[in-house]
Amino acid sequence: xxxxxxxxxxxxxxxxVKEAVARGLDVTAVVRGENETEALHTxxxxxxxxxxxDLAGFDVVIDAFxxxxxxxxxxxxxxxxxxxxxxxxxxxxxxxxxxxxxxxxDKDHKTMISDLPDFSEAYLPTAVGMxxxxxxxxxxxxxxxxxxxxxxxxxxxxxxxxKYILAGxxxxxxxxxxxxxxxxxxTLAMVDEAVSGSHIHQRISVLGK
Length: 209
What we know:
The chain is an alpha/beta fold. It has a single domain, classed as Rossmann fold (3-Layer(aba) Sandwich), CATH 3.40.50. Helix content is 28%, strand content 22%. It has helices at residues 11-22, 52-55, 74-87, 124-138, 183-196; strands at residues 2-6, 26-31, 41-44, 60-63, 93-97, 144-149, 153-155, 165-167, 180-182, 202-207. Strand 4, helix 3 (74-87) and strand 5 (93-97) form a beta-alpha-beta unit. Helix 1 (11-22) packs across helix 5 and helix 3 runs parallel beside helix 4. The radius of gyration is 16 Å and the shape is globular. GO terms for molecular function: oxidoreductase activity, acting on the CH-NH group of donors, NAD or NADP as acceptor. This is Dihydrodipicolinate reductase. Residues 8-192 form the NAD(P)-binding domain.
């Protein structure tokens, strides 16, 4: 399996590359600067400069792009839209490192976590930016996409337990009433999905046990 990880030098990107390489996948790190990952292959380009030819031949492209500047939240939609356009009509699957703010808290799927009055104002711009990019992705039936949301508490330096709970569109907690997952366990779920291709045209979510 040939796998490209876009924005591979980021926190989640590096761990995704590490997990995929450990499983023997043929991994290319797509980065703007020097490759800081364990990938043996490097494609040095900005996301917005990538072409259809650049990504031809990959089985899966994982979009690990993230930005926290509240003045640049439109880049979530712009970059994901560009990747979708250049993968349109191809067999290549597009997996997206998503956010938790767009998970629904009701069965009717009318209210998201980020709509709640006690949602952190500091995280609201990012949540809205990522929600907008997800909404745009839902309209694409020309791309074989899967959007993977983490739990509400996404722990960068958390341990890799090797276990996770796979959920769907709704906010979910484990038996302890917790909604949290380490980057390492999230990465495990992401690479599992890359290998299986079980949730095309779906948003899924993962949380720790």
